[in-house]
Every structure is written in C-alpha cells, then in structure tokens.
UniProtKB/TrEMBL annotation:
Name by which UniProt lists this protein: GntR family transcriptional regulator
Gene Ontology MF annotations: DNA binding; DNA-binding transcription factor activity
CDD domains xrefs: WHTH_GntR
Domain of life: Bacteria
InterPro entries the UniProt entry points to: GntR_C (IPR011711), TF_FadR/GntR_C (IPR008920), Tscrpt_reg_HTH_GntR (IPR000524), WH-like_DNA-bd_sf (IPR036388), WH_DNA-bd_sf (IPR036390)
Record SUPFAM superfamilies: GntR ligand-binding domain-like, Winged helix' DNA-binding domain
Upper taxonomic lineage: Bacteria, Pseudomonadati, Pseudomonadota, Gammaproteobacteria, Enterobacterales
Domain HTH gntR-type, first and last residues per copy: 11-79
Length: 231
C-alpha cells in the first residue's frame, strides 16, 4: 500500500488528507479490514506533519470510516459503520464511481423511501413545483432524444431531487440535496448503455401532475425494479 504526497501547505491540509484517504476507502481501494500504515510511515508517504495527519484521522474516525486500537493500529471499518449520509463524506464522493454493492444498497434504500416521497409530492406539490417539474420533465425527454450521458445524469438527478422537495415533508426535504452525489453515481451507472426508463418517468410525472398519490407511489415503485438499472 502506497500513498502519494499531498503537494500543498495550504490551510485546511487535514481536510485534504482526510478526503484522499476517504476516497480510497469509499472506492474499495482500501477495503474494510485494511490496516493503514503507522502515523510515521503514512505521514512520510503523504509528505505531511503528524499534527495534520492526526487531525485528518480524527475526521475519518468521526465519520465511521476507520478506528484505532492499541497494538493493532488503524483499521478500515466495515461499511455498516460508515456515516454515509454525512454531508462532507458525500461531498468527498463527488466525481467517484460507486461500487456495485453500493448501487444495490442505494437502490434498496430508494425502494423504501422514494415511492412514499413521490406519493407526498403528488398530494402536496405547489403550483410552482408542478410547473418546475414539467419543465424538468420536458428537458428529460429532450435529453432522451439527443442522448448525452452527462446531460441525462444532471437532468434526471434534478427530476428526483425535485420530488423530494415537493413532498412537503421536512424529513424528506434534505434528501433532495443531500443525496445528489449518490443519485449521480447511481443514474450514471444505470443509464450508461442508454437505460433511461423514460416510460416509468412519464408515469411518475403524470401521476404527480394529476395529484394521484397512489398512482405516483406505484409508478415510483415500478422504477425501483433492479432489472431496470443494469444491476
């Protein structure tokens, strides 16, 4: 295991160190159970002071990614221990590819929460939110006709984020923003070969515009079928 020196002395160095190590863990390069080099060795590899390194390791520990024990050193913790909804952790994921396991787990999570949010969006969306959803849906159709993976991911992410925002439930609202990074991971993976599920998106859109909560719930649930997401 070899780390690359971080070539900066700028303020916030500990955050850069934490981000570098976190991305290695999240990508699977450092799988659960991996023992990190000692502080001295890791500091030398990264080219940073022990003070900055210790602060970085504290950040990673607080997010559940690593743990330090006497005699055994610092070890990567199991995925079940990660604070995956931590805003900074999600920000560090930006631009990364997810792992197949994380795609499956995220789909399981969406299957539980998103159909309910979609039902609420159909029942509670404001006039302004329905107008915005119409605009985003029209753009989604345009992107489907002139398919560009990057543009599709951006628009599809906005479509699903808007559903959470339109739910009117204060506990669902944060997911519209907080999960944007993971949505982009997932949508990029599932649409890579042109799998856009446009018909399912149309059913969701139509149900919300008709304020039909049950139809919206069922349409969202249909979209959550794993077979439709390259999984």
């Amino acid at each position: 295991m070899q780390f690359t020196a971080i070539s900066t002395t700028q303020r916030g160095l500990d955050g850069l160190i934490a981000r570098d190590i976190a991305r290695r863990i999240l990508s699977g390069e450092l799988p659960p159970g991996t023992i990190l080099p000692s502080e001295v060795e890791l500091g030398e590899q990264l080219g940073v002071s022990r003070t900055a390194l210790r602060e970085a390791l504290k950040q990673l520990t607080s997010k559940g990614l690593i743990e330090s024990r006497p005699k055994t050193g610092t070890r990567v913790r199991p995925r079940t221990s990660w604070n995956i909804l931590d805003a900074q952790l999600l920000d560090w994921m930006s631009g990364m590819e997810g792992t197949l396991e994380m795609y499956h787990q995220f789909l399981d999570f969406r299957r539980v929460i998103e159909p309910h949010a979609t039902r609420l969006a159909a029942e509670n969306a404001t006039t302004e939110q329905r107008i915005e959803l119409s605009r985003v849906y029209d753009e989604l159709c345009q992107r489907a006709r002139d398919f560009s993976p990057e543009e599709w991911v951006e628009v599809d992410t906005r479509f699903h984020s808007l559903i959470f925002q339109a739910s009117g439930n204060c506990f669902y609202l944060p997911f519209g923003n907080l999960l944007t990074t993971v949505f982009k991971w997932f949508i990029s993976h599932s649409s890579r070969d042109g799998g856009m599920c446009l018909a399912e998106h149309h059913q969701i859109y139509k149900a919300i515009m008709m304020a039909d909560g049950e139809a919206a719930y069922q349409a969202s649930l249909a979209l959550m079928n794993a077979k439709k997401h390259r999984l």
